[in-house]
Amino acid sequence: MSSKKDIDNNFAAIEPGERRGAPGLSDIARLTGVSKMTVSRVLRGGTGFSEETAQRVLSEARRLGYVPSRLASAFAADRASTLVGVCVPRLTSGLFGNVLDGLDRALSRLGFQMMIGCSNHSQPEEEEWVRHIVSWRPAGVILAGRSHSIGTVQMLSTSGIPVVEMWDLTTSPIDLSVGFSHYDCGVEMARFALQKGRRRAAYLGAHSRSDVMGQSRLEGFAAALEEAGHPLVETEILEDAPSFYAGFYGLEILLARQPALDLVYFHNDEMAIGGLAFCQSRGLRVPEDIGIVGWGGMEAASILPKRLTTTVVPTTGLGKQAAQALVARIRGEPTRRVIAVRTKLIEGETI
Amino acid sequence: MSSKKDIDNNFAAIEPGERRGAPGLSDIARLTGVSKMTVSRVLRGGTGFSEETAQRVLSEARRLGYVPSRLASAFAADRASTLVGVCVPRLTSGLFGNVLDGLDRALSRLGFQMMIGCSNHSQPEEEEWVRHIVSWRPAGVILAGRSHSIGTVQMLSTSGIPVVEMWDLTTSPIDLSVGFSHYDCGVEMARFALQKGRRRAAYLGAHSRSDVMGQSRLEGFAAALEEAGHPLVETEILEDAPSFYAGFYGLEILLARQPALDLVYFHNDEMAIGGLAFCQSRGLRVPEDIGIVGWGGMEAASILPKRLTTTVVPTTGLGKQAAQALVARIRGEPTRRVIAVRTKLIEGETI
DNA sequence: TGCACTTACGTTACCGGTAAACCTAACTTG
DNA sequence: CAAGTTAGGTTTACCGGTAACGTAAGTGCA
After folding, report:
1. Which of these, A27, A53, A31, A59, lies nearest to A41 by C-alpha position?
2. Buried b / exposed e along A262-289 (16+ C-beta atoms within 10 A)
3. Which of A170, A136, A130 is nearest to A151 (CA)?
């Protein structure tokens, strides 16, 4: 048929002398008059060739601008041995930005590349991403959080790919876990507040989608206060993103209900800074009239005129540790399954 | 030799009956009694097979938990047709976090995966990353910024990979450019300030490494003021990271040198917020005594008690547009080489 | 009845690099 | 001087999926 012929003609339109793609080992081999295998050995720094051959090969490779196809070598090895998949709940979070930075620094130094995905706090989206990444046969995978869909866990377990679950700690990881305990953060902050003489504390949270981690902090905070005989006076969980603005108006709500508070523990630093702004707008003195404490260690929180009391999460360090644990696992070195990183309570000027 | 024998024994330690890796097309083919090719056709939704065969293949694929190897298909096609490389100067920047978010949403919806790198504002590091990504033969590459090393430009040009340079606009891109003009941002802010009656403006910058973009804003700002007959009164570029703290103490320096300013244009919103904090600490009224304007559209800037006047950069939208332009290019659809996105001057309450 | 056409497959070759096996000539060494 | 060793290679097979092409059985129609 004529249509078929036309199509054939179109595909035949490649110029005979023209280079079709990137130069490969065989191009170098042909031009230097040795075999592909010798070229491969020279370029990977092996043995079994003369100095002269090596020079010819290297100069020809340079001249052609040869870049090896990782696709081919990964394929040959049946796994993309320098690829690590990383999935975080949000790309816009300052905290996760730092975690990614730590991961990137550590992984790229160790010769790995990151393929990044974002779950938007959604398990189905995470599972979708895991399916994609598994199809790339990566050397390892890093997931944020410890709760995943059944499909996610199954795919990762059966594939045999090393996995690190990071951020909040789990004692029964798919493979490895690197993180810290949100519950303990809450406990530590409660004890610190008590030590500072606070007796009427409230908690102001906000839950965006499935962020259950704030909940653990609240539980730890409440339990420690309870134990000391000064239970939590008030709790409010806003149906909103945990932003500056939520902290501002949330504190207004909280104080309207219960004016006699001497401390508010916020979901995070952004909300706490919002709370500070609210206090300022109402002439409430911090820390004299009310104490404000946050969580997370936002950079801005440490350089405010009045430094915020908060729990600093070692984000960059966490990324680094997660990367190191994963790489150790990939290399088959012995690794602890659960690695706890230390958060640090920073005493600012708001309590 | 005995050592060789030992090694052989170690490598022979794989159990005969055990699965060595992930199941492939040939496993499904063997188990259903058809050829690899038929399985491939069924799984990719082609034609040329019976309904009954399709069902057998599909159920067997499900049973085995088959995940196709993108490594193999990408390799066969001689390019990783669903892989896009993205390199940003910093992973910890709020602005770039949003750009990445926009990119990720658009790219994943279109069926692409992102491989991310970070140049740390360093051209050698960027070049290093480009070498890595080119070795993956990606469908496209997105770089932040418009100035790159010669090696970077050469590798990308000769590889024929579609490239988008995003963030600041260039009229002579390697391939495509999506961004906005920092110079125009400066001009626009100057005109706005003049319209608001400001006559004695200063600029406070900070240069971290090779961030030359702030420089363009300063140039546009200064030129527009000059043209109107009210030239820039004072300029200070701090040798520091452009942070909240730099804004705070930088303004102090500026006012010590030149107390009679009625406007300060800051490198970015973080610095501007620092400047606001300084004014507050000194009892300077904003905007009555002095106007404070920033750049970038930090989220926190819009929810401060006193909304900051600033230029909002459509970060997420920029990512989306960059992704769409790149994908259009990859698909061979006609595309404009230079796509300008609009920044927006937001009139807050600080001028 | 015979020939074209369709359906439902199967076969082969190939992508680029690498492991493993093999080869050959020169050089040792007992 | 034969046997062994080494340097410096080459050849072959393979990774898993896909394009291109081949083919046998069935189907429709003049």
Report:
1. A53
2. bbbbbbbbbbbbbbbbbbeeeebebbee
3. A130
Residues 6+ apart with CB under 8 A from B323: B84, B102, B103, B106, B107, B110, B112, B142
Element (H, E) at A26: helix A25-32
Count of CA atoms in the C-beta half-sphere (13 A) of A59: 6
Cα distance between residue B283 and residue B277, in whole Å: 10
A175 pLDDT higher than 90:
yes
Q: Is the CB of B256 under 7 A from strand C?
A: no
**Other beta carbons within 10 Å of A53:** 17
The gap between B96 CA and C12 C1' (Å) is 49
**Rounded CA separation A267/A241 (Å):** 10
Contacts 24+ apart (CB under 8 A), B128-135: B129/A108, B129/B85, B129/B87, B130/B85, B130/B87, B130/B155, B130/B156, B131/A67, B131/B155, B132/A70, B132/A113, B133/A113, B133/B85, B133/B87, B134/A67, B134/B159, B134/B161, B135/A67, B135/A68, B135/A69, B135/A70
Instruction: Give tens-digit pLDDT for B295-305.
Output: 998 877 766 67
- The tally of CA atoms less than 13 A away on the side-chain side of residue A40 is 7
Which sign does the torsion angle of CA B136, B142, B145, B147 carry?
A: positive
CA–CA dist A242, A95 (Å, integer): 13
Q: Given the structure tokens 């009210």, which residue do they identify?
A: B230
pLDDT in tens, B103-157: 999 999 999 999 999 999 899 999 999 999 999 999 999 999 999 999 999 999 9
Task: Please answer whether residues A113 and A83 qualify as being in contact, where contact means their C-beta atoms are separated by less than 8 angstroms.
Answer: yes
Smallest Cα distance from A197 to chain B, Å: 29
Other Cβ atoms within 10 Å of B68 Cβ, number: 17
Q: Which residues from B are below 8 Å from A65, CB to CB?
A: 154-155, 158
CA distance A244 to chain B (A): 7
Residue with tokens 């075999």: A35
A108, A135, A251, A270: best to mutate for the B interface, most B CBs within 10 A: A135
Identity of the residue in A104, A108, A132 whose CB atom sits nearest the CB atom of B113? A132
DSSP 8-state symbol, B167: E
Helices B182-195 and B213-227 cross at an angle (nearest 10°) of 40
Taken in order of first residue, the domains within chain B and their CATH numbers are 2-68 (1.10.260.40), 79-180+316-342 (3.40.50.2300), 182-312 (3.40.50.2300)
